[in-house]
């Protein structure tokens, strides 16, 4: 397997899988009891183990078990958990000031993060940015910009989309359970159209044909002149790592240009080197009018952004965007350090090497198991779609059981998908090659050992 760790600093914790108790261990079980009494049952957790420490590609629990992290806290700790450069930047920043509110007395970190976002996002045109706290909050603000800048209100989203859990972003998100069930009414003027899902679309459907299908529905049901923006994830995240057929995104972006609508890329999960480039939109040369960022951008601290064409971002009236904590100075310092690591350690290259290491193994596994309907993704955003043997019928029970088997063996994997039948891999981009290798071995055993 290729070495993915060139030019990375030594880690603090041993990069190893080490199980010293059954999972969850006694200390985790005690915390689970306190949690059950104190924390709403509405907030779930993938694993019942409580974290005590984490570093690079491992999470260590309160019982001393060391788990291989193939989830990065949902694509957040791309530079590695507690990356030393991020920790040092946070330490330095937090010792000076923790908050002033950028809307009261601004500070340089916010400006510098915006400068970097403007330079790194696709498109060689003048850009401006604003910072927020979470992906959902940033998506909401992208919609505000799109509506204000175009004077239109309709927002078009895709089947299988995930954009967050606030009221507007629930409306934008496709999946009812668990994200929307019983939480309506939802924000109006949101329209859903089919995207491109090569595994489930009619055989041979091209990206251009899938775009034409979406565009026909927009024109018939919404009206081209009503559309403020078309909001898409370049590779869908929670929806199941659905990677559209080549040509789909460029055709949709072109339609937006031709019709005065904004093409808005939600790069919250795909951004910051995750797919082997700074942003997934780069892949087919798409230049979104607005790009939404969060998750991986600040090494684990909460930070999000909206970046777009300067004239669009400036079309909003003064004071129209903001928030108490948006662009917190400590989170900005963390983000600048994380972006430095991404550049200096070539984490985009590391993501490509992870793809080169993982995909052949998953394909070989697919040859051995008729439960794997599809292997897909890009860079270090890779997934298996599980089906009833020999069919394309989704098998959510298999995905749940396989994930649980990995968890029991000390490997953190996540599931996804509208049909909850996708096992997804989002390793930290700094994961040592041998640790990734071992984690994949556990996943292989879990799949081949699943008798369903
Ligand atoms: C996670 C995610 C969001 C929401 O981000 P939060 O920080 O959880 O609010 C929005 N869009 C995409 C594509 C995501 O993956």
TrEMBL record:
Its EC number is 2.6.1.19, 2.6.1.22. One of its GO terms (molecular function) is (S)-3-amino-2-methylpropionate transaminase activity. Signal peptide: none annotated. Pathway: Amino-acid degradation; 4-aminobutanoate degradation. Gene3D superfamilies: Aspartate Aminotransferase, domain 1, Type I PLP-dependent aspartate aminotransferase-like (Major domain). It is an enzyme of class 2 (transferase). It comes from the Bacteria. InterPro entries: 4NH2But_aminotransferase_bac (IPR004632), Aminotrans_3 (IPR005814), Aminotrans_3_PPA_site (IPR049704), Class-III_PLP-dep_AT (IPR050103), PyrdxlP-dep_Trfase (IPR015424), PyrdxlP-dep_Trfase_major (IPR015421), PyrdxlP-dep_Trfase_small (IPR015422). GO terms for biological process: gamma-aminobutyric acid metabolic process. Its cofactor is pyridoxal 5'-phosphate. CDD domains: OAT_like (cd00610). Keywords: Aminotransferase, Pyridoxal phosphate, Transferase. It catalyses: (S)-3-amino-2-methylpropanoate + 2-oxoglutarate = 2-methyl-3-oxopropanoate + L-glutamate; 4-aminobutanoate + 2-oxoglutarate = succinate semialdehyde + L-glutamate. Belongs to the class-III pyridoxal-phosphate-dependent aminotransferase family. PANTHER family: AMINOTRANSFERASE CLASS III. This is (S)-3-amino-2-methylpropionate transaminase.
């Amino acid at each position: 397997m290729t070495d993915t760790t060139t030019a990375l600093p030594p880690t603090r914790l041993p990069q190893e899988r080490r199980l010293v108790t059954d999972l969850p261990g006694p200390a985790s079980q005690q915390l689970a009891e306190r949690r059950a009494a104190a924390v709403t049952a509405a907030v779930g957790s993938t694993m019942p183990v409580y974290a005590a420490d984490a570093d690079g590609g491992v999470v260590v629990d309160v019982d001393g078990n060391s788990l291989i992290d193939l989830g990065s806290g949902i694509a957040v700790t791309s530079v590695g958990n507690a990356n030393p450069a991020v920790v040092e930047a946070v330490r330095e920043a937090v010792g000076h000031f923790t908050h002033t509110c950028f809307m009261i007395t601004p500070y340089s970190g916010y400006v510098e993060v915006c400068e970097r976002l403007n330079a790194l996002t696709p498109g060689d045109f003048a850009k401006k940015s604003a910072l927020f706290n979470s992906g959902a909050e940033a998506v909401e603000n992208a919609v505000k910009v799109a509506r204000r800048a175009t004077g239109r209100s309709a927002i078009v989203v895709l089947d299988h989309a995930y954009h967050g859990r606030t009221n507007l972003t629930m409306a934008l998100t496709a999946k009812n359970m668990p994200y929307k069930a019983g939480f309506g009414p939802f924000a109006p003027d949101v329209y859903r159209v089919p995207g491109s899902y090569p595994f489930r679309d009619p055989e041979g459907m091209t990206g251009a044909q899938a775009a034409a299908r979406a565009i026909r529905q927009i024109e018939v049901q919404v009206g081209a002149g009503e559309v403020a923006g078309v909001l898409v994830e370049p590779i869908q995240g929670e929806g199941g790592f659905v990677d559209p057929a080549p040509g789909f995104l460029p055709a949709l972006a072109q339609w937006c240009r031709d019709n005065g609508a904004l093409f808005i890329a939600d790069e919250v999960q795909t951004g910051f080197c995750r797919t082997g480039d700074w942003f997934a939109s780069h892949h087919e040369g798409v230049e979104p009018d607005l790009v939404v960022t969060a998750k991986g951008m600040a090494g684990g601290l909460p930070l999000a952004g909206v970046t777009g064409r300067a004239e669009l971002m400036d079309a909003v009236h003064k004071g129209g965007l903001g928030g108490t904590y948006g662009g917190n100075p400590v989170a900005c310092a963390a983000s600048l350090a994380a972006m430095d690591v991404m550049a200096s350690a070539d984490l985009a290259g590391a993501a490509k090497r992870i793809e080169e290491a993982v995909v052949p193994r998953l394909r070989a596994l697919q040859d051995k198991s008729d439960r794997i309907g599809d292997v897909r993704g890009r860079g270090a955003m890779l997934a298996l779609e599980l089906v009833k043997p020999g069919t394309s019928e989704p098998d959510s029970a298999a995905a749940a059981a396989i994930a649980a088997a990995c968890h029991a063996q000390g490997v953190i994997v996540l599931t996804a998908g509208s049909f909850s039948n996708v096992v997804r891999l989002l390793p930290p981009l700094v994961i040592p090659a041998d640790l990734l290798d071992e984690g994949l071995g556990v996943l292989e055993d879990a799949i081949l050992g699943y008798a369903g």
